[in-house]
Amino acid sequence: MSIQSTLSRWLAVQTLVGLSLVCAAVYGATRWSFHLKQEEEFQRHVGSVRHVVLETTQPLNAAALRHKLDDYFVSHADAAVSLRSGAQDLYVSGMRPQGPRWQTRTLLLPDVLVEGRPLQLRMSIDVGSDEALLARLAWTLVGAAALGTVLVSATPSWLVRGGLRSVRKLAAEKAAGRAGAL
Q1: DSSP β-ladder status, 79-85 and 102-114
Q2: What radius of gyration do the chain's Cα atoms show?
Q3: Which of 60, 62, 88, 160 gets the most CB atoms within 10 Å of its CB?
């Protein structure tokens, strides 16, 4: 194996490892940012629902509760909620979350009592667009790491080849000189 191919191969491996680590860090940071965004979305929606529930459950006004939550969720098609007190469903939004693109959490609201029982809130948000964006980002980063590796390792390979020309010429002259001396 020649020094040129060894140097080129090691440079390519180092470049691939380095770019892969950078791409993995970018993807991890982006995924974490999306997780924080989704957490904020949950908290925002839960806060809004809690506010409406407190307004309409002291005493319970089921019609006002449904009306206010329907108004809220008409403009938030990316969220769904159900409220339950014991065995009684107080509210179920029109959107029915199904499939892996929905993230659901169930919370007990001990500070909100309906007929002496705490309220159970089941909140779902649609994270499908976030997951699709993360998938596109992952493929983009894989492509960037591969293309970057090819470009970064091809240029030095060309430089090494040019730099080794003088070594090859010297080795050829020495070999020719040795052959002539025999």
Answers
A1: unpaired
A2: 32
A3: 160
